Amino acid sequence: MPSATTTTSPRAGTAPVRQARTPAPGLFLTLIAVCSAVTAANIYLAAPLLSLMARDFGSAPSAIAWIASVAQLGYAVGLLFFAPLGDSANRRRLVGGLTLVTAAALAAGAAAPGVTALAVAMFVASAATVIPQLLVPLVAERAPAERRGRHVAAVIAGLFAGIVAARVLGGLAGQAFGWRWVFAGAAVLTLVLGLSTVLVLPSQRRREGPLFAGLAALPSVLRHSPDLWRACLRQAGMFGAWSALWTSLALLLTGPEYGLSTATAGLFGLFGLTASAVAPPAGGLVDRFGAARVVRSAYLLAAVSVPLFWLGGHTLGALFAAAVLIHAALVASHVANQTLALTATSTPATANTAYVVAGFAGGAGASALAGFAFSHFGWGGVCGVAGVWLVLGWGLTAVRRSR
After folding, report:
1. What DSSP letter does each residue of 152-202 carry, written as one string?
2. How far apart are CA 302 and CA 95, in angstroms?
3. Burial class (CB in 10 A: 0-12, 13-18, 19+), 62
4. Residue 204 has what pLDDT?
5. How far is CA 60 from each of CA 48, 53, 200, 393, rounded to the nearest angstrom?
6. Phi, psi of 198 (to 5 degrees)
7. To which H or E segment does residue 6 belong?
8. Whether the predicted model's global pTM rises above the 0.90 cut
9. Taking the alpha carbons of 222, 362, 356, 107 in that order, is the dihedral positive or negative?
10. Which residues pair with 18 in a beta bridge?
């Protein structure tokens, strides 16, 4: 039976700290993975619904594609300010508060009267939905050293399943009920799963010192950890390439080239869902061979996927293959790079903040540029943006390593 535990603060004379009841390790890991899936899906909620939103607001889909990059930028900002608090703040209160803000912002998005109000709601919701990145360091800390990669991979598998499910289920539900009901449903799911997770999290403060000390320490942490620096840039390049392609894909599929409905285009995400199965074996490979080999292999897969995506502008079968490859590459790269980031310093929450902020900043920049490229150069321009991001992500870290 799960039971409450009591621990003693390392400082003499302090009162014992009461921790929350925690379920069995397997159930605990599963709950965190499911919560991560639901909250991560919020960032990509708008992507499969762009055509429906544009019709509702009387705009062209390409004219509101920037909302997807607003969501990613909001997530990066939220990570910068909230994720470092995992080293110092009461994690239960922090996750609970962010859950309430996220649910409220999604509800506001469902009722948004125009594009600007929707963008503001998406920014706030994405900034507050950083819960997965408060939970991953906890999983890494609790895991045995020889199985750390596998445990981190389990949460990442849930996270990516949520991202892909946002496209598939969001597209289907949006087609059936309208995009506003999708936002309302996401608000309810976030509230239920977030508060359920709060009940099993430890409640003690993790460190003494100023609340935002982790944020202030970010430049120093990056400067003194070459491994963390490389993980940040490589994931920024990989995530940027994926974001450019995946956030623009609905525009291609629902455009004149293929003419698919929003629901049918959303089903395309099932190809990415199959690649989420890469996470568990990737975690095992990281534990066995190290992160560097896994990241190198992931970049090779991504490099192969870009020309396939370009060919997919006219050939649906090429898009199928490219979708599986880019998701496999992203998931494997993320498992390896995040495991490295979490073990590169003595402040895992702060290091994880630097890592994920870098990734999502890369993703937001690539998404914004991809929307511009699609409007002016078509699908080929989007593929060009993805290729440039991969070259930058690998090339800059290769230059740094050789110095």
Report:
1. HHHHHHHHHHHHHHHHHHHHHHHHHH-HHHHHHHHHHHHHHHHHHHHTTS-
2. 34
3. middle
4. 58
5. 14, 9, 45, 32
6. -55, -35
7. strand 6-7
8. no
9. positive
10. 6
C-alpha 135/C-alpha 157 separation (Å) is: 14
Length of the chain equals 403
> Per residue in 22-36, pLDDT tens?
555 566 777 777 887
- CB-based contact 149:287 (threshold 8 Å): yes
Q: Is 66 exposed, middle or buried (0-12, 13-18, 19+ CB in 10 A)?
A: middle
DSSP letters, 209-257, are S-TTHHHHHHHHHHHT-HHHHHHHHHHHHHHHHHHHHHHHHHHHHTSTT
How many angstroms separate the CA atoms of 294 and 287, rounded?
Answer: 10
Hey, CA dihedral for 140, 144, 149, 154, is it positive or negative? negative
SS3 113: coil
Q: Which two tokens stand for residue 145?
A: 């050293």
- What residue type is assigned to position 47 of the chain? A
**391-402 pLDDT per residue, tens:** 999 988 775 443
Tokens at 10, concatenated: 């390392």
